[in-house]
Amino acid sequence: MGDYEPYQGDLFGQVRSNDDFRRVLSTTRHTQLVVMTIPVGGEIGEEVHDGIDQVLIAVEGRGTSILEGQRRPFAAGDVVVVPEGTKHNFVNDGDGPLRIATVYGPPDHRPGTVHHTKADADRDEADVPPQDS
User: Fold this and answer.
1) Domain total of the chain
2) What is the rounded CA–CA span in Å between residue 97 and residue 113?
3) What are 79's strand-pairing partners?
4) Which residues neighbour 111 within 8 Å (Cβ) at sequence distance 6 or greater?
5) What is the CATH number of the domain that holds 61?
């Protein structure tokens, strides 16, 4: 198994108890499991992942997914698959936190990363050079 450890846990419990903007739960060579909480009025921020696919699952709350400018409701139970190269954003326009589980393939963040707020994430991503794969 190399340097990677298997992960097993209560994913929805982890999502519901997470108050951090981003928390990496598990990283392997090919995938990464992350939980996110977007506060009311907040957003992930428009982005494009080159060479990385992303699957986002809404566990609690509601908001809007924006893929290549197309807006759709995104609420508990919904899943969105974002292929590499797709401009995307997720906005919390609900009345409570939008709690999300997301899987990146390949990983997009350093193993163990925790960003308490979007501002922390923005600072970290601006200060860290891209990792070699």
Assistant:
1) 1
2) 20
3) 57
4) 24, 27, 32
5) 2.60.120.10
Helices (H) and strands (E) in the chain, counts: 2, 9
Note the pLDDT tens digit of each residue in 66-92.
999 999 999 999 999 999 999 999 999
**How far apart, in whole angstroms, are the C-alpha atoms of residue 58 and residue 61?**
7
Q: Strands, DSSP E only, in 39-93?
A: 53-60, 62-67, 70-75, 79-82, 88-91
Report if residue 48 sits inside a domain: yes
Q: Name the pTM for this structure.
A: 0.90
* Residue bearing tokens 């991503």: 125
Judge residue 3's burial from the number of C-beta atoms within 10 Å of its C-beta, 0-12 exposed, 13-18 middle, 19 or more buried.
exposed
Domain-located, residue 132 = no
Q: Which domain holds residue 85?
A: 12-127
Residue 103 has φ and ψ, to the nearest 5°, of -120, 130
